[in-house]
């Protein structure tokens, strides 16, 4: 994985003379850990749009994102990475399209403790892949609440999402800043490599 100075240099070269913030989307099903992940790493207070849950999902948690979460990471005075978290429920799909605009990559969070989360992830993955051909990584949360072995769950998620061998499925506690950082850096590194070496279609 690239060192931080090298990554900053490459990002500046990709941005060109007029710096633009780099954008990564954090998506996934309801209660997969998206908001928690952004809060764990953002250097600014996360701008969120959480509201009380009014349906059966309230048994899982009492609040849900209805528009977006927003966080920021600054690598240097003139280089920022913006993280946009999406709502997890399908009734807010219109926001998925809005937030996908201009992204250089995305993180798909999946809850290992919720069978529905794994099933819903396939729909979300297909939706975002249809909007932009960008690198992505799968983050698996709530492994401490899952009954199956961690490696078995990662393999199952990889298979059920129909991923190729190069796509990473990574355990991630969204409360752990270091684990979140490594997940973000995986996507950022892949995105910068893609921007530097675009594939001809």
Structure description:
Strands 4-5-1-6-7-8 form a 6-stranded mixed β-sheet, sandwiched between helices. Strands 2-3 form a two-stranded antiparallel sheet. It has one domain: Rossmann fold. Helix 2 packs across helix 6. Helices cover about 40% and strands about 20% of the residues. It is built from 6 helices and 8 strands; from the N terminus they run H-E-H-E-E-E-E-H-E-H-E-H-E-H. The protein has about 200 residues and is an alpha/beta fold. The model has no long low-confidence stretch (mean pLDDT about 80).
Q: Which SSEs are present, and which pair or pack?
A:
Elements: H1 4-15, E1 22-27, H2 34-41, E2 50-52, E3 63-65, E4 69-76, E5 79-85, H3 93-100, E6 105-111, H4 115-131, E7 136-141, H5 150-160, E8 169-171, H6 177-196
Helix pairs in contact: 1-6, 2-6
């Amino acid at each position: 994985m690239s060192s931080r100075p090298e990554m900053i240099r490459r990002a500046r070269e990709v941005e060109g003379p007029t710096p633009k913030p780099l954008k990564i989307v954090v998506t996934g099903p309801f209660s997969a850990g998206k908001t928690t992940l952004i809060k764990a790493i953002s250097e600014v207070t996360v701008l969120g749009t959480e509201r009380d849950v009014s349906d059966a999902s309230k048994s899982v948690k009492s609040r849900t994102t209805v528009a977006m979460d927003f966080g920021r990471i600054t690598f240097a005075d003139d280089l920022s990475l913006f993280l946009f978290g999406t709502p997890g429920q399908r009734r807010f799909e219109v926001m998925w399209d809005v937030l996908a605009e201009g992204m250089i990559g995305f993180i798909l969070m999946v809850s290992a403790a919720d069978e529905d989360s794994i099933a819903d992830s396939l729909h979300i993955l297909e939706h975002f892949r249809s909007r932009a051909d960008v690198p992505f990584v799968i983050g698996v949360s709530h492994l401490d609440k899952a009954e199956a072995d961690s490696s078995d769950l990662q393999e199952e998620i990889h298979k059920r999402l129909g991923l190729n061998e190069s796509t990473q499925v990574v355990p991630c506690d969204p409360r752990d800043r270091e684990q979140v950082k490594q997940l973000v850096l995986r996507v950022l590194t892949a995105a910068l490599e893609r921007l530097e070496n675009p594939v001809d279609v």
